Amino acid sequence: MLNDDQKRKLLQVARTALQHAVAGGPAPDLRTDDPALRQLRGAFVTLKKDGQLRGCIGHVVASVPLIQSVAENAQAAALHDPRFPPVSASELDRIEIEISALTPMRQVKDVSEIQVGRHGLMITKGYNRGLLLPQVPVEWGWDREEFLANTCLKAGLPPDAWRGDCKIEAFEAEVFSEADFC
Question: Whole-model pTM?
């Protein structure tokens, strides 16, 4: 678990990376002696503008330190989410940052194990893969089956594909945003 100081540091890094990507200025300082921030850990950065999704990109696999993952994903969410045009400098004041620091994936043996609001899901079949963070089904008011169906849709699969030979993986996330520290 991350403490409040670590969460604030990650949010500051994400904000600086966002500003650097969009408007120039100094890149975030990623040097840290904090072992929790140096831990290899997957993470997603979600950008919201006026409460609406504006970008979301992440690393599922824990291949870089958490602090680096946050910085890279903040920049990518701002500039490279294919669902949205790049964030402009004029939008920066209205962008709120949310970070989801992930636990490792584990394969789901029985869908009854999935707890809406606690687990995020990744469904894979062949080259198709879709991922939804734990907060998504809560925001949309989905039950477990709707969560599974929408994760399939995100993967480009039929909504009931989860009943077949798909690989279903679950993970948890520590989710925090700038609003938590206002």
Answer: 0.89
Q: Helices 66-79 and 4-23 meet at what angle, rounded to 10?
A: 40
Quick: pLDDT tens for 126-162: 999 999 999 999 999 999 999 999 999 999 999 999 9
Domains of the chain as residue ranges with CATH: 4-102 (3.30.700.20), 106-171 (3.30.1490.150)
Q: What are the residue ranges of helices labelled H in the chain? A: 4-23, 35-38, 66-79, 135-140, 144-154
Instruction: For the chain, report the end-to-end CA distance as a whole number of angstroms.
Output: 21
Specify the DSSP class assigned to residue 40.
B
Burial (CB < 10 A; 0-12, 13-18, 19+), residue 62, is middle
Burial of 97 (0-12, 13-18, 19+ CB in 10 A): buried
The set of long-range contacts for 158-164, using a CB threshold of 8 Å and a minimum separation of 24, is 161/123, 161/125, 162/111, 162/123, 164/125
